[in-house]
Amino acid sequence: MDTVYDAIIVGGGPAGLSAAIYMARARFHVLVIEKEKMGGQITITSEVVNYPGIFHTSGEKLTSEMIRQAKAFGAEFLSADVTGLELEGDYKTVHTSRGDFKALGIIYAGGAHPRLAGFTGETEFRGHGVAYCATCDGEFFTGRTIFVIGGGYAAVEEGLFLTKYGKKIIMVIRGDDFSIDSAAVEELKEHPQVTILYHTQVEKVEGDSAVRRVVLKDRKTGEETVYTADDGDFYGVFVFVGYAPENGLLQGKVDLNPQGYVITDRDQKTNIDGVYAAGDICVKNLRQVVTAVSDGAVAATSLEKYLGSQYRKLHMKRTYVKKIEPKEEPKAEAAKAEEGAFLDDDTRGALKPVLDRFEKPITLRLYKDDSELSYEDEKLLKELASLSDKVSYEMKNAEPGLEHTISIVRNDGTEAGLYFHGVPGGHEFNSFILAMYNTAGPGQDIGEDNEKRIAAIQDKKDVTIAVSLSCTMCPDLVAAAERIAAASDKVTVHVYDLAHYPDLQNKYNIMSVPCLIVNDKDIHFGKKGVAELLDILG
User: Is domain 130-239 classified as CATH 3.50.50.60?
Assistant: First the structure.
């Protein structure tokens, strides 16, 4: 008989990770399946200050510790796209892009995704004035008038953040007041740059290559107000109107409320025995990390009781998963950083074991010019090479289009088709290290299906990705594109730090990152995983 898990958890956000920690700590055989990035949407949040007991952290750090904790207790993790669920009967089946998996119980923690506001022009101007992440895109609207749509937690927090960039922030709220009551609301109301319009909605946005005209409608009187930008000016429109549940796999299988959220009892149980739900996918009043992890813990402990009854019913003998005792990893010995070094001692220590896994030598080639960027790149490459005998670096005079550009070169001397224009710092540093890892091997495991799809690419694909080093969503797209390029001679990836390439920004009128351009014409915005990117590449 094939392996049957005690529990399969669909979704690797805080709710799913919390459930995994509780299930694995009870020594059940647990598999967590996530289609995108383990950690969920909170990983794009750079500042978390309201999680009890953690004074200040980022979403990435918080969830990475949850993952480490779950693995230490013996939980297994799989990166795959769940394509179907069979939930009736004693054994549940989860169909994925990497095969089928069976379990006695399921915890569904698929979460929710940002909801579109639905006004005319929203899709057309996405990335050209309409945005959904203030951290990623706020800087593009420095000195402009910015409309913020929504009256909840996200809208208030992001509205305050955008006061750092916009000369004027216009809050557009459908109701008669904000939907929350907090000190942040009062701060927003008292801010001199902020205007608040209640019982108002955006009817449409218009323009050419950017948003030049915004039409608002008073929901009580029906009166429309038109904002028209001065010559050469444009607007930013940031949408924060809540989330839509990721319920496609559940429709027709478990009970949902009219808004599409899963109905559960106090034990997080759905209407189907052995099937539980946790996190933002559920009917609830507050969608925050703290409530997600609570849901996960409740779902896990409830499922534990169900599993006990199933073992007795099916006359099965339970096997206990061996706990992986956490132990202190020996600190990697890396050369200490000199004063003014690009990499500090902690970063060097973290990089050393990663670089030691490289299977083949690679060379980091810098197309050098006389710019400050080239000087910083040279420092970085020199320091990386000092950490591993598998990494070397070389200088080459810049060629047109390759000024202050790093290229990763394979062991046979050929360029891997992975280029970074600028200095890969900030959030892009990790994706740059991943590009090195994927070129040197063993590389990230992306599943047999994706490997076959990469091998099937026949036509040349020139991929340009515009990023901001402060963007928390950009690295996912960069890592996916570079993983594909590392495995295919047909795909070339050029990553640009948009702060240093205004001509690129103007050419494609980029007002949101990440921006993906395929073969100089096909433009997409937002983060993408390997499978999604392969869909685009055909």
Answer: yes
